[in-house]
Every structure is written in C-alpha cells, then in structure tokens.
Amino acid sequence: MTKKDSKLFLHLKKWLEKAVLDHCMIEEGDRVLVGVSGGADSFALLDLLDSPMIFVPRFSFIAVYVDMGFDQNFTAYLALEKYLQTHQYPYVMEKTDIGTLSHSDFNRKNPCFLCSRLRRKRIFEIADEQGCNKIAFAHHRDDIIETLLLNIFFGREISTMMPNQSIFGGKLHMIRPLAYLSEDLLKKYARERQFPQVENACPTSGNSRRSYIKRLLDQLEVDNPDIRHNIYTAMSHVKPDYLMIKPKN
C-alpha cells in the first residue's frame, strides 16, 4: 500500500492542509525549512509536505537536522542521513555540542530551556543561510495543549504555541502544520509508513516538565476521555472579561 492509498494519509493530509489554510502558513513561492528531530512527528511532517497539495500554494523546502551531541556514535545521525538520502530530500545536517553543553554542571537548573534555545537559534541561522522565510516545526495538537499547561503551571502565564508566528519583524515565520493533529494519529501513521525509529538520547527526555504534564493528562483522561479535546477547544473560547486582567491606566 502506498501512502496515497491510505485512508489515514488522506485524513492527515486533509487536516494539515486545513491548518495551513486557516492560519495562512504557506504562500506562493515560500521556501520552508522543515525541522527534523528524528521523532515520528517530524518524519510525518516531512512525508506529508512532500506530497501533492490540493489547496496549498507551491513552495519548496529543505530538511534540517541539528544533532545535539548526546550520541557519541552518531547512530541517529547516520540513520536519519540515510533516510533523507534514500528519499532524495534536500537537507542540511549539523553536529553540535548544544545538548551536552546545556546539560553540563554549569547549567543544572534548567537544561531543557537552554538546549531548546540554542538549537532554535542555530535553526534560525540556517534558515537565513538557506534563504528560507518559513520554518516548519512538527508540533502537534498535544504539544500545543501541553505547552499551555506548562506555561500556566511553571511560567505563570496563559499562552501556548501559535500555528503561525511572525518573528524578526516579519522576516521569518514559524509555522506548525500539524497543529490540528493528535500525537496518537501521527504515531499510527509512523508505524504505517515504517519510518525509522531514531532513539532520543537526551538524558532528561523521560523526566522533563513536559513528560510530567503528559502523564498528568493521561491520568485525567481516565475519568474524562475528552480532557485533551476540551482544553484544546477552550483555547478558542477565551472570555477576557472573566480573567484577572489589570485595566490599563
């Protein structure tokens, strides 16, 4: 079965295109940097974007992988490079020490924050070098829900990831074409398409704040199976009059 024959592919493609159109993520002639992490979500994003679009304007893309330096044998790096070459994707891959630096003794307090910040900084630089005006990340619906709770619990603010976020005065946009899709469906698609299984070598990946939020939602879902759907829907039903917003002087 090819991906074009798959009902799951057609379902994912439909909602990806809807998200792109609803939030004006891609315009004619855009050059998109697709951030690839080696996870199932980023493989799915790359695979879906590399297929004929019905409503999305024509664009070009380049896959970019920034190795964080955790895997000294570069097992994930080599597996990903083989995959990109096999599918003849244009790509840039780079080996760094961002992860090991962020998790070193001088930065024990919040390694995830620094790791993410430095990786994103390098991706911005590569986007500029490659002439990209859009950066597509593989954040999905569950990531958006978890980020909302992370920012409430630990950041003391009500905010989350935006499907289309302008930065650097509009010179660059971060887009999230998977914003309407759940993690479970993307994992199912990864199994169907038999994407490579690239292990996450980060030492804190299973014990991060995001992992804590994910486990909490799983527990809440036992009593209320709609908990994730309700939180996601609530972000579109905000009532500012019922929030503690200080009036402007």
How would you describe this structure to a colleague?
The chain is α/β, with parallel strands linked by helices. The chain has one domain (3-240): Rossmann fold. The chain is built from nine helices and six strands. It has helices at 7-22, 40-49, 75-86, 98-102, 111-129, 141-153, 183-193, 209-223, 227-234, and strands at residues 30-35, 59-67, 91-95, 134-136, 164-167, 172-175. It has a six-stranded mixed sheet with strand order 3-2-1-4-6-5, with helices on both faces. A hairpin with a 4-residue loop joins β5 and β6 (172-175). α2 packs across α7 (183-193). It is globular, with a radius of gyration of 19 Å. The model has no long low-confidence stretch (mean pLDDT 90).
- The counted number of beta strands is 6
Structural class by SSE content: alpha/beta
Number of domains: 1
- Along the chain, the helix and strand elements come as HEHEHEHHEHEEHHH
- How many helical elements? 9
Low-confidence stretches: none
C-alpha end-to-end distance: 63 Å
Reading off the top of the CATH hierarchy, the class is best stated as Alpha Beta
In what range is the share of β-strand residues? 5-15%
Strand order of the largest sheet: 3-2-1-4-6-5
Percentage of helical residues? 40-55%
User: What oligomeric assembly is this protein in?
Assistant: single chain
Sum up the overall morphology in one term.
globular
CATH topology group: Rossmann fold
Largest sheet composition = 6 strands, mixed
Write down the Rg: 19 Å
CATH architecture: 3-Layer(aba) Sandwich
CATH homologous superfamily - what is it? HUPs
